[in-house]
Amino acid sequence: MRALIFDLDGTLIDTVYAHVFAWQRALAESGLAIDGWKIHRRIGMSGGLFTRAVAREVGKPLSDDDAGRIQARHGVLFRELLPERRPLPGAVELLRWLRDQKITHGIATSGRHPEIDSSLAALGVPADMVVVDRGDVLRAKPEPDLFLKCQEQLGADIRDCYVVGDAVWDLLAARRAGMLSVGLLSGGYGWDELTSAGAFRVYRDAADLHRSLDELGIL
Amino acid sequence: MRALIFDLDGTLIDTVYAHVFAWQRALAESGLAIDGWKIHRRIGMSGGLFTRAVAREVGKPLSDDDAGRIQARHGVLFRELLPERRPLPGAVELLRWLRDQKITHGIATSGRHPEIDSSLAALGVPADMVVVDRGDVLRAKPEPDLFLKCQEQLGADIRDCYVVGDAVWDLLAARRAGMLSVGLLSGGYGWDELTSAGAFRVYRDAADLHRSLDELGIL
Question: For A14-41, what is the mean pLDDT?
Fold first, then answer.
């Protein structure tokens, strides 16, 4: 039994650029101005790793309190900037098709409830779909925990799981979990970045993946 | 006499992600919702080309009036989102060093006065520096006009000009102008995208370029 495990932000929902800009503002307000592209390339890793990486980049140590405060401020700005979530092209249709075909699939995201709830609602994710979030594991991507937890809940074998993600962190975590992975350009990484990180195929977005499922050798 | 011609947004000033998000909001408000990454990869091309590309993407024709209105709304949102401009690492120091060393250099941007004025001020650009903007030419990047106009004003030979830019549009325009080009990652493109578009070297940002000037063979 093959199974598809999807990342959420940048893979199914168009939130990456709002996240980048919300982080950039939240960090700048705390005197931690940092280049947009460096934030972009760190989206999708665990929030703790992210804030530590930023602190190293800026050369200022960051207390846990500061990190928590900046994360909370990011959340507020993000919801202000993007009150409505927009599914990426083909995402809703692909998930619906997988359900109809009874192909095992789930979502594993470094995001948290309740922040991800509007994204799941916009995607029309039914209540019984397997969704593993940051709160379900000790360590987020690029640790393999989120994907392994999702695989367990899906009841699939590790070697039968295919991760679909837009960020290098998804692809690294997939490799560490022993899973194959597919990259999507819809989060703004370049083709080579995804391929070098281990994606055996790269597609533009969920719609392109849906059209190309035959190339994956999974159906 | 060698000359360096710099792009502005994403090359010297950290504005790309604010531009992406401002475009995304302005377009969504006009019923033209479009993926963030597709906007990102079109930043730095002429505004006219950009809005036409978006219209094709969304599959709705766009009148000149609509295009103008969306461009104006983008400007308002951009200034709201990013009231202060932040030079990218090393940009101010590199420009100062080039002035001190009397190495010919200028800026050629698809942006316009007065929108670019705060960026130029943040960079400490002196009044006598050659800055060519959208208003000085008929056609913006990836047409070669901006770089050719800058080269003329600098009094340099085309074959002695090196373009420094963060976007594929800079590198394509440089090739069409007959100039060599150097890519910077600071606008969020991947290394391979810049190399494939013609950059003979790629650096992280202006600071990295400054440290690596010996590798260019221009000094």
Answer: 94
